[in-house]
Structure formats: structure tokens, C-alpha cells
Amino acid sequence: MAQPRDSPDSTASSAEPLLRAVDLTRHFRLGGLFSKHSLHAVDDLNLNIREREIVALVGESGSGKSTVARLLARIYKPTRGEIYYRGRSLRSLRSRKDQLWYRGEVALVLQDPFSSLHPVFHVSHGVTRNLALHRAELKRNERRREAERVCETVGLSPKMLSRFPYEMSGGERQRIGFAQALAVAPKLILADEPVSMLDVSIRIGILNMMAGLRDREGVSLLYITHDLASARYVADRVVVMYAGHLVEEGPTETVLSSPKHPYTQLLLSAVAEPSEKDAEIAADSGEPPRVIDPTEGCRFRWRCPHAIEKCAQVTPRPTPIGEAQVACHVAVAEAQRASNPASIS
After folding, report:
1. Cα gap 335→83, rounded to integer Å
2. Which of 23, 208, 281, 332 is 20 to 30 A distant from 96 in Cα terms?
3. Topology of 19-271+290-343 in CATH?
């Protein structure tokens, strides 16, 4: 296993998360140059990822999950907010040396494995290219050995390096995508829907591989998915997003065994056995989220069977309920009543 590279001028304390996003926001302008309309892809997201941790970022399509990955990978610039890696603001990474350092620490694995592989080169091309760019201290024969090592780490034979992408299955191409990411010796991998295009029979192998990277290589992962079952299988913590907002976050079993936010309950009802308890929310498809010039208030209120007047007036912020953080006026009020029944008149 490669030794982690040190950050230039790094002063992060041991208590600092590996990566920390504070009020992370990204808006996209719509229309022409003078248009005042904007799409709010992500608003005021606070997210921590610790070392050797898998965090699942879940939600429906359009909830802002992939935008978060691209913000953390520095493909998009935040509209506002800060991202800290090892205690250092990404805004301070201006030199080419610093930018290469960050890209070597934080790698992105895309949803479509074929898009990250050059169709006219052997799959070894992407792996060795990353090694040459980010680990220049390795000699040519050492790069070849390291390419074979990372290939074996993701569960493939080194012979796969001599194949073309079209000669491989979808699962094998996705593993090569992880091998390309591992070649730079990252401490964090941003995996954007890495199993959504794979057969169900292949997904479990990729999920086991991801858990193995955490346990054996010491790599943290942000696992972006709409599949709660896979999130429960592999993640240490779950972050639920809806319409660009964080609505619930906490340890996996806490969130998925006893969800507090109605949206999390809706997601679980889609995969759980039908029951009367689930029917009220599951049967209400409601309106699509309004993320173009949204007004104040909870963005889930049009689909929520428990919405109250305050939900249309005040945007809920994540509030502690036990081990979880929940952005719901009704859930927070119920938790407060349960913890202090004497206050009920």
C-alpha cells in the first residue's frame, strides 16, 4: 500500500475530518446573459467524511448528488460555501503543484465505466498514465508492478491490463475505473453511482470491493446512489438529499431503521414490503421538486402528508434528533415533545 502524500503547509489536527464541506452551494444560471433565473442544484450543504469511512449520499435523480461529487472533485466551483480537505480550504489551492496534490488525494469514479476508458488503448493506458502523472518517483518497471498491484486490489487478474475496453464486461470495466483511481494513491474516492449500470448479480462484488478498499487500503469513499439497499450494505453513514437540501443524516442503521424525515420514509417505502404504515406516503407521488428560483420553506412540502403552515414559511435546517440530523419542523417538534412530555399543556 502506497504511503499517503503530505499536504503542502498542512496543519490539520487529528480531530479534523478528512473532508469537510461548509454551507456548500451551487446554482446554475438559466436562460441568456441577462436572465435572473437560476437552478439551485445544491444549497447550504454541510458534509463531513472521516478517514476510513464510507458515506452514502442518497436521493432521487435531480436531488443534487452528482453535483456534490463534481464540487468536491473541483469540476464545478461553488457558488458559495467552503470545502476543506485535511483542514485546508480548497480556495487556497492555486498552484499547479497544489492542484495535482489534491487530484492525487481525491479521485472520481464515474457512473459509466466506459466513459473513463480510451477505446483505442489497452486498459493499462489510463492506469499507467495516472501513475506517471501523480507518482513521478516511480520508475517504468515500478509503474508496471504498481499497475498490476492495483488491478489485483480491485479483484482482477493483471492480464486484464492488456485488454481493450470492449473486450471486458461492465463489471470488469467498473473495477478498472476503480484501479485507475487507486493508481494515484488517493485517500478519498468519489464514486458516482458506480453500480447503477451493472446487473444485480455483479453489484454485490463491486460493493464488497469498495468495503475492501476501506478496510485494506485505508481509503474513504463517498458512495453516491439512489439504492438504499446497497447503501445499507456498505456504508457507515447515510446522507439523504432532496432538491439540493440535506434532509437527514446519521449512522446507517439509525437513519434506515428509524427514519425521521418523511422523504427518507418515502425512499424506504419504495424498497420495503408494502404495509399500511408505508401506504400514506408511498401512494402520494406529489409534485416534482421546485429548484428553479425556489422560495423559502421546505422543498418537500408539496409531497409531504405531514406538512404544516410553518413548512411553507421557514426552510428547516438540520437539527439533532438522537444520533441523526433531521431537517423537518414536524419531526423536530415531535422529538422535543417526546423528550419533554411535561411541557405539553
Report:
1. 31
2. 23
3. Rossmann fold (3.40.50)
What gap in Å lies between CA 63 and CA 172, rounded to an integer? 29
| Number of Cβ within a 10 Å radius of residue 169 | 12
Task: Give the predicted TM-score (pTM) of the model.
Answer: 0.87
Domain boundaries, the chain: 19-271+290-343
In whole angstroms, give the CA distance from residue 112 to residue 128. 20
Residue with cell 463491486: 206
The separation between the first and the last C-alpha atoms of the chain, rounded to the nearest angstrom, is 61
Phi, psi of 39 (to 5 degrees): -95, 125
Q: Are 313 and 266 in contact (CB under 8 A)?
A: no
Give the alpha-carbon dihedral of 308, 258, 189, 51, to 10 degrees: 110
Q: pLDDT, tens digit, for every residue of 229-283? A: 999 999 999 999 999 999 999 999 999 999 999 999 999 987 754 444 444 444 3
Q: How many CB atoms lie within 10 A of CB 306?
A: 16
- The three cell numbers locating residue 304: 409531504
Query: CA 44 → CA 2, 77, 243, distances in Å?
Result: 35, 14, 12
Pick from 70, 88, 51: nearest CA to 186 = 51
